[in-house]
Each structure stands twice: as structure tokens, then as C-alpha cells.
Task: structure prediction
Amino acid sequence: MRKQLTIGLFGFGCVGTGLYEVLNQSNLLDAKIKRIIVKDRTKKRIIGAEHFGYEASEILNDEEINLVVELINDSNEALAIVREALSKGKHVVSANKKLIAEHLDELLNLAKENNVSFLYEASVAGSIPIIRNLEEYYNNDSLSSVQGIVNGTTNYILTQANYGVSYADALQKAQELGFAEADPTLDVDGFDSKFKLVLLIKHAFGLTVQPENVFNYGIRQIKPQDVKYASEKDYRIKLFARAEKIGNKIVGFVAPHFIKKDHVAYQVDNEFNAVIVEASFSDRQLFLGKGAGSFPTASAVLSDVSALQYDYQYEYKKSNTETKPVYAEDFYLKIYLASKDIQALNEIPFYFLDEKFQSSGYNYQTGWVKFSDLSKFDFNNIEKLFFAVLPESFKDEEEFLKFKAENEVLVNEIA
Amino acid sequence: MRKQLTIGLFGFGCVGTGLYEVLNQSNLLDAKIKRIIVKDRTKKRIIGAEHFGYEASEILNDEEINLVVELINDSNEALAIVREALSKGKHVVSANKKLIAEHLDELLNLAKENNVSFLYEASVAGSIPIIRNLEEYYNNDSLSSVQGIVNGTTNYILTQANYGVSYADALQKAQELGFAEADPTLDVDGFDSKFKLVLLIKHAFGLTVQPENVFNYGIRQIKPQDVKYASEKDYRIKLFARAEKIGNKIVGFVAPHFIKKDHVAYQVDNEFNAVIVEASFSDRQLFLGKGAGSFPTASAVLSDVSALQYDYQYEYKKSNTETKPVYAEDFYLKIYLASKDIQALNEIPFYFLDEKFQSSGYNYQTGWVKFSDLSKFDFNNIEKLFFAVLPESFKDEEEFLKFKAENEVLVNEIA
Result:
């Protein structure tokens, strides 16, 4: 029943090391690492030099190796490795969300053509088995949304920020602790969360979206006044990757959200990740766990290796339905928009204004905007503006017009 | 690829009705309910009388029916149905935790002999896919504990109690809302949680334990002073079903726990359930969702039906390992023990006493006790005593003796 797996491993950082220890030093799985390819020939390692090689071909041309585990940082190099491994009929397990998000359909077609599995649980929310659950457990229940905190670095920084530490200090502390990279752009500007969101959208709704078409806004522009506003209202700021179904349309983006005290994600702090799944029958469910780090990631990789012993593959059942959902940006959401410069607030059209606050040096307004207006801007690089999504359900055009007609215009109406 | 399922349904309460609507009124699954067996011939139902029958044999003798979904309350009747259905080569999906916990090995052997599946995700923690995750996802990672809040009724009552409502009032409110039965014993004395724990132990550790060998203590004896103590210490009282691995031993029981403010279960309130899984690599993970109610339960049943289309069955991989774990009670835990009657506190030997408080009408002490001393007592029926587990890790004999030797005896030492 169980399949004997002979593994070629690319990369021997923390995750690779953890994986090696479990696989080769226990009898938990019928799987052994035969060869490990690394870059650095001089680095001291915990096992002898005879285990290592330096050429990808040593694995890719070894017919005995039937599983490639790819754990390297460089996503271009990883792409070449994954392509060749799948083409040569080897199963692939990867944790590289950027690579997978950018080339998903190509790679899964390649896997299908060669009748092998391509698994990547570790690429989204570390140890949380969210891909597997979306694939297996929620395959019949009509999902309405998948959202959550999927980047531990920004959640660590925001946890500090929510308790009053400045963004710059929190980032520095995260870097010292090894939670943030020297160049933290991919994390703090929401790119990493976006790659993960692309995979969640695929497995939740059966839709392939290109990362470049998905809006991402991170946490670099958060000012102390924004944190103060949140805290006065009993909100915490969290970076949410969020995908929802509105009719037959799928909407999805990454942005800071104000999270209410009674929301399940309010207390998800530090390097923890949380994914919330809403479905018509099962209601709201939360999966919480460590999103990064060597062991949580290794555990997810291990789980994929284990599943391969039983020839597991993702079936992408939701991609095979007759009515294909479409990706859209024409919905309304309620936001908080703040700036030192009061004029700057006018750059985003508000279709329904709720609150407006002015002072010397800090102004904000809250109200309803159209997402397609927001997504035109590169907010990560607009120093003078900050926005966060407020806790209200999204509305489509019809719902919004109805809402607008039913509610008095409280302050001022633009457009 | 997909298997056509023809279903015989026993029971047509809320869950059955929900299931019928999804299965027969949508094309989500290739599964139809052919016949529904109910007891009450006079009850008005949402669909015509032609769908209903009153004899189990109408389903059990129908060769076209290849799946029996059992959703009735009477566990003796359910047992007879499940036995016969499996024997006749029909798959079975059940939500009846009592039945399954009491007859697990018999029923799964019967399923195996007849080469059919016996699935019961809905029986533990409603919509939370915990059985499936223990089966599929944590099958390689060495689990150290599975615990959590698996009974919505008691969690609803405790939520009220934590906010100052008396036990009696909270129970009455729960009954009015339909969260508690007229005779709430199974819930409030921890039996329901225990049946679920037995299933968690099987899927987490591969061990079959008989429910009568597992200690269960519920929430009936909680006094206002106990709630006050908890609240002063920033604890909330939660009824935990808890199983842990200590060496090669498995320990497990149901009892009230004092939960700290920073614990992931602290905020799990009302009818929500939460299961926390700890494993060596993936660290601590929490699964949160609604634990009861027609739709959450129907969603879990639906998920089993859906999995059957692909011939899914539990593999009980952890039951097939060479070294079998054993069930044990010889470990130490830290508890809070309270009574009006100061002498009553002496009935339980404390091996290490931490705090002692005396007043007219309310006394308590905290410290370390041996579990096998506790489990001798039928605490559910001892009005004068209340105990709750304090937030400290369990210790085996060796760890406890080491701890004791290293710590000064603060107040008083017994034995």
C-alpha cells in the first residue's frame, strides 16, 4: 500500500535540516533523503559532506529519486528545478509561494501530464493545513470567504504597533529576532500575503488569478495616529489577505484591516497565522497556528511527503465546475483614510461619507469607496496616505445603492 | 471517478432536513436520498409522505442503497442499524458519538470485513474537521496532545457563568434557547465530551479506550466562589476534554480547567468548540468552529458523504504501529479544590500544597495531586467538592519527584 519514497532535497537551511532529521533518523515514514543539493561548498553542516552535491542534475538525472523536495530561496532557480523534476516524472513538494503563485497552472498541468503530484501545503500559513482542508473538507460546502493573517513577520510588527511601538522600532526588533529580512519589502508591502492569497483563491474557489492582478497594500505607512484611532475604537490593526465570493464574482486583495474586539482574529498575535473560512453550512471556522519558522514549515512539508506515500494529489475539484467564477473589483467597502495633508484625502472618491476628522497634522475620514478606485493607486509608495478596511461586509453595486438610498447622508457626499 | 451514492437516511430532524435540502435540491454532489426512515407517522414534514418509511428494513434490504446516513438519537437502535448496514456492505455515516465511542473497534472491524467505509466526522466538534485532520494531516508528526472544548452546551453555560450568571440560571437559559436538553446530564456531567475524547484518542494516538474507563467530571458543582476565584486570577473556567502523551503512556479525561488569559481557548465562548493539537513539529494549532446545531452538523455529514464519492475511508494508521501506547492514570496534575466544608478538602491527598485559603463557608487549596487518586471519586455527584485543573503541565512520577525535591514546601505537606 505504502510507496517507498526516495527523496532529492534542494536546500539545507533550517527546514531542510529538520526534515532530514525526521526522515533519516526515525522510522516514522518509509522515505529517505538520498541526495541534498546546496550552493555553499564551505559551510559547516550537521552531516557529512558525502550527503551533499552541488549540481541539480545529480538529483534530476537520478532515476531512483522519485520525489523532489524544493526548499531554496531563489524562485527562478526553483522554477527551473520544479519544471524539470515534474517533466521527468518525479513528484514535487515545494514551500515556495512566489514560484507557485506565479506559475500555478503551468506547473499543475505539467504534473498532470506526467501523472505525478505537486504538493505545497507549507507555502501557505506554515503549519496550518489549510490547502488540504480546502481541497478535501470544503469541497462540497459552498464557500463564501477565505481570509486571514498569513504573514508572521507583519503580524509580529503589528502586534508591537498595536501596543504602541513605532513601525520603525517594531521592524528593527523583528529583524533582530530573525522574523524579518534585511530587505523586508516582500513581507511588509503585502506581496508574500498576496502569493498565499492566490493559492487560497485557487483551492477555495477554483479560480486562477495572476499575482500582478491582485492588489496588495502592506503596513509601512501606518502612523501612530492610526494606531491611536484603532485603539480608541477597540480595534487592532491586522494585515488581512481576503477573498470573498459576491454572487458569481470573486474579489480578493491584501490590506490592513481594523479588527473588532469580538472577532476571532483579534487576539491572533505575534508570529501566529490564522485562516478563517466561511461556508454556508459550517459557518465560520478558524484555523490557528504558527505560520513560519523551521519546524512549522518542516511539519507541513513532512505532511506532504507522508501523503505522497499514499499517492495523494490535489484534485482541484472546484476548478472543474461548469460555471466558472470571475475575478472582479467592482464592489464597495468601508474604509478609514488618513493623511497629514487634508487635500490628499480627496484623491479617493467616497460614495458615502460617514465620519470626518480634521486637526493640524492629522486628518481622516471614514466611509464607502469603490474598490476599483482604490486599486488604481500604489499605496505602498504613497507616503502621505494610509487606509485600512473597516469591519463592514462588502457590498455589490445593487446592495450599495440600496444602502445609500436607505441611509441619510450624514456629513458630505462626493460624486 | 466519482461514485454514485444512493442514500438511506435514518432520522429527519434539523440535520436530516438540512442534508436533504442540499443533496436532493442541488447538484453539488452526485448523491440522492432515496428513502427516509422516521418514527413519528403523524408529524408534519417539509416534503411529501411518499419519501418516508417506518421500517429499517426498507433501507437495509434495498440493494440499490449503498450508503446509510444515521442521524437518530437512540443509540441502541442506531447500533442495530449500523451493524446491519455494514454487514450488508453499505457504507455508513453517523454522528452518534455515544454509539461510536462504545463500539468503535467492533464497528470498524465490521466495516473492514465488508470492505466499506464507516465515517463520523460530525460526531466530534460539529463542523470542525478534526477527525479528518488527525487522520490525514497529523499522521506523521508525533502528536503530544489533543484537547479542547468539544461540548457547546456546557461552553454556553460556562460563558454565562464566567460573566457572573449562576449555574442554575445559565442552564435554564441554555434550555430555553434549545442548547441544552430537558435532562442535561450527558452534557453537563461531561459524558458527551468523553465520548468525543474517546474518538480523538483513537485518531490521535491509535488507542482504543472504553468510555467507562475514562474519567469525566462536568460543571454542575461550580459555585459562585469558584467563578470569583477564577476571575480574580484572570482565568476563565472551561470544560476541557484532554488527552496527552506522557512517554509511551496516554492519559485522558474530562474536567473543568482554569484557562489563562493568553491561552488560545480563553476567548472561545458560547456554543463554539475548539480543538487544540500539539505536535513536535507543527507546535500548537487551534481549530475553531461551531460545535453543534443543525447546519454545522449537516456540513460535517455532507463532507463525509462527499468523501465517500471518492471511496474515502479512515486508515487508522496510528493503530497499526509496532509500539502500542497504553492508557494510564499515574501522573500528577495541579488542581484547585474547593469546599464549604474544610474537612472535605482532606479527602484528596495533596503531594505538594501550594496555596490554602480558609473562611467561613468557603475554603480552597491548590497544589499537586495524583490523577489516580482523583479518578476514584464520582465528583459529578459530590455536592460538597469542586475541583478544576490549573494551568500547569502534567508530570510523570520522575518529573514530579524532581520538581518536589527542587521546591520548598510552602505550606503543608501530606504523604
Summary: The mean pLDDT of chain B is 91.
